[in-house]
Design a protein that fits this description.
The complex is a heterodimer of chains A (521) and B (328). Chain A is mainly alpha-helical. Chain A contains 23 helices and no strands. Chain A is rod-shaped, with a radius of gyration of 40 Å.
Amino acid sequence: MHGFEMLRARLERRQRLLNGLTAASWALLISVGIAIVALGGSALGLWGAVPLLPWVIAHALLGIVGFGIGWICPINSRELLFRADRHLQSHELLVTLYELSQGYGPAEFFPLLERRLAALSVTPARALPMGSGDRGRWAAVAILSFFCVSVASLVQPGWLPTESHLSATAPASHESSRASPLLDEWLQTPPPDLAQKLADMRERFERARRELALNPNDPRARAALQQLHAELLTEQERLAPPSPPTDAESSKKSSSDASVTEGSSSDLRPPQQSSSGAAKLDHIVQGLRSILEQAQGLSHEELKKLLEQLRDAPPEVAALAEQTWQETQIPQEFRQRLEELLRELEARQALYEQLEHLQQEIESALAPPEPQTAHGEEFSQSSPNAPSPVEEGSQQAPSQQGSASAETPRSQERSEESQPSAGAGRGTAPLDPEAAKDLPDLSELRERSRTIPVPPSAHDQDLDILFEIVSLELPQDPQGASSPTPAQINYERVEAVLDMLEIPQELRDAVRQYFLSLSRH
Amino acid sequence: MITEQRIRELQEKFHELIAEIRSVIIGHEEVIKYVLIGLLCGQHLLLEGVPGLGKTLLVRTLGRALGLKFARIQFTPDLMPADIIGTRILTEDEAGRRRFEFVRGPIFAHLVLADEINRATPKTQSALLEAMQERSITVSGETYTLEEPFMVLATQNPIEMEGTYPLPEAQIDRFFFKIVLRYPSLGELEQILQRHGSSHELRPVRQVLTREELLEAQQLVAQWPIASPLRRYAAQLVYATQPSSDTAPELVKKYVEYGASPRAALALVWGAKAHAFLSGELHTRIVDVQAVFYPSLIHRIIRNFRGEAEGIPVEQILQQVYDQIRPT
């Protein structure tokens, strides 16, 4: 082979390399660009976490494919050598030699020119350097890749998982990433001074209640209590874990909104979220505690398997566990973080319960004032510092119940408080014995309700409120049937509560009948 | 068989020829080079310059250095074609018989200097140009072939236009190059005075090249290698002078009526080959094409009325073409 032919072959190889690099740079530039968009979207929460290892493999494959396509692209030798001539400043010697070798022009000149080629030290890299466009593109690819890795490190700290992890946890990670923004927001808004706020609220409540004791119709005190009630609801909402809105829930919410507007005392109605929020908090705490117990002594792989099995767990629990694992990746640290999380959630739970208790007290205090015949005397006898009706009732109940309070559920206590007995605490008037005959047995009702499996948090609490209202608002004067009795007023509220609260379907008619009979008397 | 040694010998002889001419002609290096290119290509040249710049001296020196037959024709309005070509005259031999004999005119030389060609009538100009093109003359049905090498160097004075017959565009196109002689610089003028100031006699010129060697060199240049990208470049340059072409620069589109003919492209390629030969190379380069760009095209661009009215020089138009078209 001639010297020129060897040089030509080397230059062609070099050109194929450059073509391959050009094609690869384009492919990588586009794919890295897409990766950045994907990561950006992931960072903004538009979609789930990007599995980066497959991305990296895809980039590499794309680059190799691009390189291969560039390599096999046909080469125009004449143009290639003409370009090489210009880079070498060899005054078109290579392209002339090529054409002479191809039979264009007198062949006698070929050896003459080839001898000149020897004097020209030609290296492929000098003859065909990488173009500025290619260099710029590769620089862009490098910069974008670095940017990509940086963003990935920020957005997805454990961005280099193993294959098995990726294949197994892909749906779970997607699930958690869907739930995590809401949970993040919830966890990042801790109640900083809620304890202090709670104490302030209680103080305001006591003040308002004292004013109400002096004048049950004091509008200022009632407004203050209502304001306090609204604040309590807000705080409860903040404490309760968020739930992703679903169609079912939104429709439910709208219907509840409608009932609220219809109800006469919508601001007093215990929000459904309060009970469900407590339940949710409890669920999360229980779920995390269960995970923590199971995670004791587990290795890295076992922990990952455990997290993979959490797909059936509540989404908030799975999301929190997955997020904690993503942040730590070390079993020991994972357990510590989980314990910290549990402590914080338990603190939230305690605060939530306090808020709930205060809320119940406010609702009791805000109940419509009773007729002067019964109430006025009692209030006139009691001192301003006398305990509130709720407290009083709770203090007096055991003495009146005696040994009948063997069962201790709150609902039972309250129903027993509402039994007709003269001067039975709370300032409630005794029931008319005649009217009581027609009433269904409330204890039987309770027993029936206890046998039906319902969610404890919702059912018990709502029934408690219901029975409390009933015990407070029994009709005082059967003669005054022409004017709306407290039972009638409260019946409307109870009616709304019945629609809202989770009283078992089978019992609703019985409860309704009970209150209807009350209203008749 | 072409050998590098022979090529080198011929190139060396031409370098000696250049040196010999420069021993007589002060300055005009470019002109000497272009004249030799025309000679190597066997083509005719148009020299333009004011009187007294050494046009005649140049051609005469060239003829002597080549050992070729040299003829000078001073064109005047009353010059007839027969004065150039020759004529048949009645002669009587020793036996007393009379017959017509063709007396060859000055065109039957190797180098013909047609001085102030634009002063002759178009009829006489056409006779010369036809001989230049055909390289043969037909008189009374008899054809006479002009001996190779044959080269006409026509001159014209650009300042005295009164009583002249400017060459039509079609005739001008037959000239390979148009070489514009510039006025010598002060230093060159001093050298001219120093060298020729003492005597009217010209310095004797040594013959450095034989007629056969010149013909061999012409054949060598004709087959001088040139790569196709260079041919494409030459074509692109010429094509860009056409106002209707998509690569034409703005000045061409605005001020040019007719661009260069395909003959211009041939002149570019042939001239580039000869330039490469004179440069001591063994193949044609882009710089060779660029070197002969102006003399090849300058007389082939015909400006439109607007271009002439605004006085846009053809050189300016060509400069834009040269700058815009790059070899690809």
